[in-house]
Amino acid sequence: MVMIPVIALATAAAAFLLFIAYQVWWQSGKATEIELSPVDLEAFRNLTDPEEVRFLRANLSAREFRKIQRMRLRATGAYISVISQNAGRLVVIGRSMSAQADAGTAAAGHDVVNRAVQLKLWCSLSLLKLKLTMIFPTLLSPSSRIADRYLDVSSLSASLPKKLAA
Questions:
Q1: Is residue 5's pLDDT more than 90?
Q2: Which of 159, 161, 123 is nearest to 142 (CA)?
């Protein structure tokens, strides 16, 4: 009796991990051809700022708040999707870097790959949470920590194409 939920949970976890692996490694191409889509991190942080949510909740009716919050959540989802796509591109850049002969460059490439995969996973989990938040906009709010993680991995990789060209 207890085995069925455990097996179902294990199967779901395995499927989720395969989905993440597919999302990360489906991209191909040379790292020098990959360009990251622009992300306005200040606007993203504003959308995910808990203080902003509290302000809106205090100054709007419950109905208006739910309506505005759902619009903000849709915009947040769009930002997270772009960040997730960029994370996949950063994996490709990092993999190209890790194949370089220079040990320092290869190590930096491995670091970018690891951080980008973590960011991709964080984005997937954030999008799942966002879907739940769309259902219950007054109970949950999205996290702005994803912006910090994205800034971390994208700034780390900023010099990688230059190293590849050298």
A1: no
A2: 123
- Give this prediction's pTM: 0.72
Residue 99 confidence (pLDDT): 83
Question: Does residue 89 lie in a domain region?
Answer: yes
SS (H, E, C) 36-58: CCCCCHHHHHHHCCHHHHHHHHH
User: Would you say the C-alpha torsion 44, 112, 19, 4 has a positive or negative sign?
Assistant: negative
149, two tokens: 């993680």
Structural domain for 55, as ranges: 39-165
Q: Which two tokens stand for residue 110?
A: 């491995």
> Domain for residue 129, yes or no?
yes
pLDDT value for 125? 85
Please report whether residue 14 resides in a domain: no
In the block, tokens 């989720």 appear at 16
Number of domains in the chain: 1
Cα separation, 143 vs 45, whole angstroms: 9
Tell me whether residue 1 is in a domain. no
User: Residue 141's closest CA among 31, 25, 51, 81?
Assistant: 51
Q: How far apart are CA 38 and CA 79, in angstroms?
A: 10
The residue among 4, 27, 9, 3 whose CA lies nearest residue 116 is: 27
